[in-house]
Design brief:
The protein has about 400 residues and is mainly beta. The protein has one domain. Helix content is about 15%, strand content about 45%. The chain is elongated and about 90 Å long.
Amino acid sequence: MKRLTNLIALSLCFLTSSLNAQSTFSMGELNPYFSEYLKPMALGMATGMGHGWAHEARPHKILGFDLSLSVVAVQIPEADQTFKVSALSKMTGNGYSFLDANSNPLGNDDLLPTLVSSLPSDATMQKDLAPSDLAPSMLVDVPMMDGLFPEDIAYAPNMALQFALGLPKGTEIMARYVPEVASTINDYANDAGFDEASVNELNMWGIGVKHDIKQWIPVVKRVPMLEISALLAYSEFNFDIGTTAITLNPDELLNGIAPTYTDIDGDGNVPTSGADFNDVGFGMNMSSLTGAVLVGANIPVIRPFIGVGFNKASVSTGLTGNLPMIEYNLNSSDGTTTANVDYDPVGLNVEAEKTFVNFQAGINFKLLIFNFHAQYTYQQYSMISAGLALSIR
């Protein structure tokens, strides 16, 4: 987060030192880049929430139950560990160019790293805010981020604590829940002397149902040991953190220029001071809707199963709170520079959604009341999970 603060401050200070006309800059202009950079990891985490709901094809008998803990790893495909410069065409249309370490323009087919890549990035996003007939140029330079993962370890982790209960008519309901633990985390952080961040919200919940459909199929319902069921589940994760590590107070960022707080975009919402921009944080909302048809064998001790299904992953993440939009002006009569500041109407946020069709295979080893289960799901973002369960009936 401190790197992001320094990046923003560097960009704004460079801008104020080279202005020669009126121009506007806002963080929302960088959304296309941050979307490409964060999207694979965010989708991987959201996809992982939809994995591991079923430990076998057979639903629990009436009042049978299990309590399980599973860990999940989602593999980010190599094709999504980088992205082409051409994906930033919206920024190109907004006046941005993309340069390598030697300030040479990047081609549309040149690759840039995402968060899950192991590649460094020496590239820069540059915007010339001056009209084409005005010299000298007025440049904003924003360094692009490196990939942060070790080589060959592009996995998004996840885990789930789940309870399942058997109901009549071959039906099983499942639930996942992590209660609101923000205050507990803050207490531990304060005790450890870490006061740069405060968790405002952290919770996860999910609900699912599995139903025996073999019982409704003539002839097939009499086949011994064969189990056929349908599963549908939804889960959601919410996270919000406030931090003092990101400071976007214009009074501190504008390199000695006193800002004037005004209504630049005409929406009637006007900041009163730089303190209105001190509540910057980071938020994330993820959800997963998954469904499958499962076919398995009810064999003592070992219960294998296979299935076909889908997983719809959705994510919304970005900086929360008020971000500044800054309009710079150069007074041609005396050469002084002024800055008008308003709320950025767009903000810095990333939204992504993707639906995967998948094939699943899993196995459940049962030893008295304890189960060990493992599952592999083949899809564009393939997943593997393993876990332990306490299971009755």
